[in-house]
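Our platform keeps sequence and structure together, in a single record for each protein. Such a record has a labelled line for the sequence and another for the backbone structure tokens. Nothing more is needed to write down the fold, since each code stands for a local backbone conformation. For reference, a complete record is included directly beneath this paragraph:
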Amino acid sequence: GNIVDLTKNEYRILLTLMEQKGKIVSRERLMEKLWENDSFVDDNTLTVNMTRLRRKLESFGLADFILTKKGLGYRIS
């Protein structure tokens, strides 16, 4: 019954991961989904968005909801 206030990018990250639940989603795929145009976006921008999303989810008791697979990407359990 709680509502998590997400930014557009945080929502897109979560939606993409939920659409691929149980599967690893690469950082490249997430960046394509978030920034669909051809402009260059720093890789760190995704890291910052992911960190903020994780903090928001953790505040609702969803620690470790988004798992990092080092060198591969992210997945949700």
User: Anything to note?
Assistant: The CA atoms of residues 26 and 71 lie 9 Å apart. The chain has three helices and two strands. Residues 43-58 form the longest helix (16 residues). The helical segments are 8-19, 27-34, 43-58.
